[in-house]
Amino acid sequence: MPEAAWTIAAEPHDSPDAAALWRAYYTEVSDRWYQRYEGRDTDADELEREIAADPGDHLTPPEGRLLVGRYRGEPAGMAGVWLADAGTAELTRVYVRADLRGTGGAARLVAAAEDAARELGAELIRLDTRTDLVEARALYARLGYEETEAFNDALYAEHWFSKDLRKPER
Fold first, then answer.
1. Separation CA 141–CA 101 (nearest Å)
2. Distances from the Cα of 42 to the Cαs of 5, 73, 163, in angstroms?
3. What are φ and ψ of residue 96, in 5° steps?
4. How many domains does the chain have?
5. Which residue numbers delimit the N-acetyltransferase domain (predicted)?
6. Which of 8, 73, 95, 159 is surrounded by the most beta carbons within 10 Å?
């Protein structure tokens, strides 16, 4: 079973492995955005500017966590969670390397993020995503997230999801 090859642990958001995963994630979602709207990949200067603009400080204890997933010991994915307000956590940076998608890592990373959110005191977890990230939207729906009204006005947000962390899993 491929899932047995995954391990997940909290790691500093600026560790070399976390930084490399953030770069890979941001490169992929940014390229998809620019290809969709401008027919091009992200410019190198744009990429550096945007990565630097969101270093992940909010994913630091005591109010946040960055979880790094390793597949057979190699950095393979991540998920971040942070307290947006009392009782509400936000899920962010859910990513699995393309060559390891389909191995169960994404569901394990989200479950670990939900556990971390509960440890932070959250009863609700929410996220925003884009229309073109169809794989992400399908994952969240499969994991019990429900599409909800907008809870922010983030530039790239087009869909919003939430999940009650007090409900027992089915």
1. 17
2. 33, 30, 32
3. -130, 135
4. 1
5. 20-166
6. 95
How does pLDDT run along the chain (170 residues), one tens digit per residue? 566 899 999 999 999 999 999 999 999 999 999 999 999 999 999 999 999 999 999 999 999 999 999 999 999 999 999 999 989 999 999 999 999 999 999 999 999 999 999 999 999 999 999 999 999 999 999 999 999 999 999 988 999 999 999 986 65
Return the closest-CA partner of residue 10 out of 100, 76, 86, 78.
78
Q: Provide the residue range defining the domain that includes 31.
A: 2-164
CA 114 vs. chain centroid, Å, equals 11
Q: Are 71 and 100 in contact (CB under 8 A)?
A: yes
Please measure the distance between the N-terminal and C-terminal CA atoms of the chain and give it in whole angstroms. 21
Which residue type sits at 119? E
Token readout for 128 is 């925003």
In this prediction the pTM is 0.93
* DSSP-assigned letter for residue 15: S
State how far the alpha carbon of 70 is from the alpha carbons of 24, 43, 67, 96, 115, in Å: 15, 29, 10, 10, 18
Q: Which residues pair with 65 in a beta bridge?
A: 81
- Give the dihedral of Cα atoms 79, 160, 162, 97; nearest 10 deg: -20
Alpha carbon 69 to chain centroid, angstroms: 12
Instruction: Give the separation between CA 50 and CA 150, rounded to whole angstroms.
Output: 23
Could you give the C-alpha distances from 129 to 11, 102, 160, in angstroms and in order? 24, 20, 6
